[in-house]
Design a protein that fits this description.
Layout lengths: L9 E3 L2 E3 L3 E3 L14 H12 L4 E8 L11 E2 L6 H13 L3 E7 L32 E2 L13 E2 L2 H21 L3 E6 L4 H6 L14 H4 L1 H13 L6 E8 L6 H13 L4 E6 L19 H11 L2 E4 L6 H9 L5 E3 L2 H5 L3 H9 L10 H13 L20
Parallel strand pairs: 3-4, 3-13, 4-5, 4-6, 6-9, 7-8, 9-10, 10-11, 11-12, 12-13
Antiparallel strand pairs: 1-2
Helix pairs in contact: 1-2, 2-3, 3-6, 7-8
Bound molecules: flavin mononucleotide (FMN).
GO molecular function, one term: NADP binding
Keywords: Flavoprotein, FMN, NADP, Oxidoreductase
Cofactor: FMN
Length: about 400
């Protein structure tokens, strides 16, 4: 049996992850006025039951104006605590850790669901709070010529927003989450403050690099007031945005955030322009892993790697090479929610079905023990080469 890093536990502050596999935040575009539905329970539930150590609920918006689409989840009011708590309870029952990403879409708010056509939403009579949903950003600069110019935030509104992130952290704690991630990537509000391209403010939140980093730094401080000492805090960054913000800036920021109580940088890329590679338009395994390695090495902080990590041995190698501490598997886990169990089998981990609930793990374990061999459907069948059937 193989000892792997992927399936070894990791303790961050007071929270123990049973393995290094993370389901990264993935919007479901299925909330109703910010409230989770049964879809969210099923979605988080299947990943938790599939054996991941940490399941991070999608970017959940700290204020109404921050909703990207009509289907975004919300956490801007205490009324969201209880329904989000239902997801937490189910994730924990599967012996996984429940995380949530806090976000704000900034100038990319009020958009279509991706499968309804990229770009800004068209006004319809059923949206009763259209004006309150006007996109806001550090400066009145449109994302691209496809998008409307946002309204620039007043200085006092920036201060209020910092507190909104803090209040959202309080609600995440009340709902029972054990890991919190701040969305600082993909061209959304926090990233818009970091980038010179979208931030041309002349107050203390714009101009120099230190000023552009002030918003996320204050947000982190406000979050830490409410987010308990023993619980981990992650920040997702577009470590390279192909528009002036890169690994050196990210590592400098990570060092500052570490002093403010951030434990892990989740290393993504792109989003401040339409051409950058959030979802890896170039087809290349591990395309963002070098960004994670850079931040880990230069900022001396734990990192999470994400982006076209498809195979168990690929994930294991990233950990062994010291390029990351955690592995996020996004679209591949949409393809195979039982990815952790599958990876454990392929890596030869002892008790590959121990990670999953007995409702199915027990049966798969007994099938495995019989030894007459049934290959999982994610392997080559071997049926057409009888010598290979095991
Ligand atoms: C359907 C979908 C929704 C996503 N929603 C979010 C999100 O809420 N927050 C976020 O930071 N990234 C989001 N992402 C990006 C993923 O977290 C991940 O970084 C990206 O898919 C690359 O990893 P992968 O190649 O393993 O899929 C989303 C991706 C997908 C496919």
């Amino acid at each position: 049996m193989t000892e792997t890093l992927l399936f070894s536990p990791l303790t961050i502050r007071g929270v123990v992850l049973k393995n290094r596999i993370v389901v990264p935040p993935m919007h479901q575009y299925s909330a109703i006025k910010g409230f989770p539905t049964d879809w969210h329970l099923m979605n988080a539930g299947k990943f938790a039951a599939g054996g991941a150590g940490l399941v991070v609920v999608e970017s959940t918006k700290v204020e109404r104006r921050g909703c990207g689409t009509l289907g975004d989840l919300g956490i801007w009011d205490d009324k969201f605590i209880e329904p989000l708590g239902r997801l937490v309870k189910f994730i924990k029952q599967q012996n996984a850790v429940a995380g949530i990403q806090l976000g704000h879409s900034g100038r990319k708010a009020r958009a279509n669901r991706p499968w309804e056509g990229d770009g800004p939403l068209k006004r319809t009579p059923d949206i009763d709070d259209w004006d309150e949903w006007t996109p806001v950003a550090p400066s009145a600069i449109a994302h691209s010529d496809k998008w409307p110019a946002p309204r620039a935030l007043e200085r006092s509104e920036v201060k209020d927003l910092v507190q909104a992130w803090g209040e959202a952290a309080r609600r995440a704690q009340a709902a029972g989450f054990d890991v919190l991630e701040l969305h600082g990537a993909h061209g959304y509000l926090v990233h818009e403050f970091l980038s010179e391209r979208s931030n041309q403010r002349t107050d203390e939140y714009g101009g120099s690099e230190a000023n552009r980093m002030r918003f996320i730094t204050e947000v982190t401080e406000a979050v830490r007031v409410h987010w308990p000492e023993h619980k981990p805090l992650f920040v997702r960054l577009s470590v390279e945005d192909n528009a002036g913000w890169g690994p050196e800036q990210s590592a400098r920021l990570a060092k500052i955030l570490k002093t403010k109580g951030v434990d892990v940088i989740d290393c993504s890329s792109g989003g401040i322009t339409d051409v950058a590679p959030i979802l890896g338009k170039e087809i290349k395994y591990s395309y963002q892993v070098p960004l994670s390695e850079y931040v880990r090495r230069h900022a001396d902080i734990m990192t999470m790697a994400v982006g076209l990590i498809i195979h168990g041995d690929q994930a294991e190698q990233i950990l062994r090479d010291g390029q990351a501490d955690l592995i996020a598997v996004g679209r591949e886990i949409l393809n195979n929610p039982n990815w952790p169990m599958d990876a454990a089998l392929k890596l030869g981990v002892e008790g590959p079905f121990r990670n999953v609930p007995p409702q199915f793990g027990w049966w798969l374990g007994t099938r495995d023990k019989r030894g007459f061999g049934t290959r999982p459907s994610t392997w080559q069948s071997g049926l057409h080469d009888p010598g290979k059937v095991s």
